[in-house]
Specification:
mainly alpha; 2 domains
Length: about 110
């Protein structure tokens, strides 16, 4: 299959997915928000705008690497830094760190 046809199919699939997500957002918003929070009823296009705003606020505008290696690079960067930091600790320091994390984040039943 030609690249142009594949690209066109992918573009259509992405557009259909966006419109379906906006429709679901529209339905859920108008079903829940006015009843639960006395909020406004919104239009389909406002729901689409809400999805775009959510994407911008939580995921940013660009798809660039921002100095961390592209998609998922930010996660790999911090994971690598954490691994380097942990590997530089002595065994006693590592155990003290684990104990401190267990005390802070685990429930009493998990601390065994």
């Amino acid at each position: 299959m030609k690249r142009g046809a594949i690209f066109l199919k992918c573009l259509v699939a992405v557009l259909v997915a966006i419109f379906i997500f906006a429709w679901i957002t529209y339905l859920l918003w108008n079903w829940l928000v006015p009843v639960l929070f006395n909020g406004p009823v919104i239009s389909y296009w406002q729901a689409l705008g809400l999805l775009v705003l959510t994407k911008i606020l939580f995921f940013g505008l660009g798809g660039g690497n921002h100095g961390c290696g592209g998609r998922g690079g930010h996660h790999r960067y911090w994971k690598q830094r954490f691994y380097e930091k942990m590997s530089s600790l002595t065994a006693e320091e590592r155990e003290a760190f684990k104990k401190k994390m267990r005390e802070k984040w685990c429930s009493p039943s998990d601390k065994g």
